[in-house]
Amino acid sequence: MPVDMWMLYHGIDTFHSTDTAYQREALDALFLLDMDMKVKAIIKLINEDVDSFGRRAEMYQNIFSFGGKGAVKSQEVQRLTVEINMANEKWDALMQSKMHQESAIRELKMEIGSLTEQNHSSELLIQQLRGEINSLRDSKGEL
C-alpha cells in the first residue's frame, strides 16, 4: 500500500493539524513505514529464487557488483539502499531543523516571560506613582 494511501486509511492529516505532537507522531510513523517498505523490498529481492545457503551467499556477494547472476536484482537493491540512505539524511536534517526551532521557541518563551515580568513591574510602579499623585492632590486640596 503506498504511503499516502496508508496515511489516508489511518486518518493521518499532518497538513491541517495544529497539534505538533500529533504531527510528529504522524511523521515518525510515515518515516518508519517508508523504511519498512524499502527494507522488505530489499529482503524480497534477495530471497527471490534463492533456495540454498550457497546461492544466497553468492547473491549477497553480488549485491553491490553489477556482474554475475544477480546483476538486475543487485541494481535494484542498490537503488533501494541509496533511497534509504537519502531518506535517513533527510530525516536527520529534519530532526536538526526541528531541534533548532524548538530551541528558538524556548528562548522566545523565556524572553516573553522576562518581558511579562518587566511589564508587571512597570504596571506596579505606575500604580504607585498614581497613588502618590493622588495623595499629593488630596494634600494640596486640604491646604
From TrEMBL:
It comes from Aegilops tauschii subsp. strangulata. GO terms for molecular function: actin filament binding. This is Uncharacterized protein. It comes from the Eukaryota. GO terms for cellular component: plasma membrane.
